[in-house]
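Sequence, please.
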């Protein structure tokens, strides 16, 4: 036998076990009334304080009620845009998924077309087929500047307009409503 086998276990001796049980019961019966007393004292103190605070809370709540309503109103105003946007949640999901799918397919298409342009010979630039719009306008301006002809040909103006000088046109304006209307139309041609 070894030394470990010679040592008795703590709970194996009946006298020690009875002593521990008796000590535990004695401590329980000594501590229990104190714990119950402390519990009831704290219970009544807590509820007495709660009653006093309720007495103070009611008038304070009455005085601060407008502040509470203002706070509720401001909180509702802050949440209103989010509540409005929540109605369109399904639309956001639909459009968001559409944007993701469209973006992914667009990137895929750009990658495929970019990779196929080289092998198919589509990278070459088209040859110039003639004048550009800028060159055409410049040529037209040069032609007008060198020709010296007026922009309005005499074939398009009325004979009265050619023969009348500015002073006679001005004097004929005051001759009546019809003449004035016609002269205003003629003046607006310029």
């Amino acid at each position: 036998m070894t030394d470990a086998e010679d040592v008795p276990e703590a709970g194996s001796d009946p006298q020690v076990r009875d002593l521990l049980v008796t000590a535990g019961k004695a401590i329980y019966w000594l501590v229990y009334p104190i714990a119950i007393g402390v519990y009831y004292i704290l219970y009544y103190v807590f509820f007495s304080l709660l009653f006093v605070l309720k007495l103070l809370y009611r008038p304070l709540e009455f005085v601060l009620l407008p502040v509470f309503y203002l706070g509720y109103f401001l909180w509702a105003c802050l949440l209103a845009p989010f509540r409005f946007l929540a109605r369109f949640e399904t639309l956001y999901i639909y459009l968001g998924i559409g944007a993701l799918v469209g973006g992914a397919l667009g990137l895929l298409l750009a990658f495929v077309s970019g990779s196929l342009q080289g092998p198919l010979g589509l990278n070459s630039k088209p040859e110039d087929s003639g004048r550009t719009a800028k060159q055409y306008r410049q040529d037209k301006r040069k032609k007008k500047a060198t020709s010296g002809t007026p922009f309005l040909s005499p074939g398009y103006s009325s004979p009265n307009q050619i023969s009348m000088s500015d002073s006679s046109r001005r004097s004929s304006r005051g001759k009546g409503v019809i003449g004035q209307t016609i002269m205003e139309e003629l003046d607006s041609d310029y």
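The chain has seven helices and no strands.
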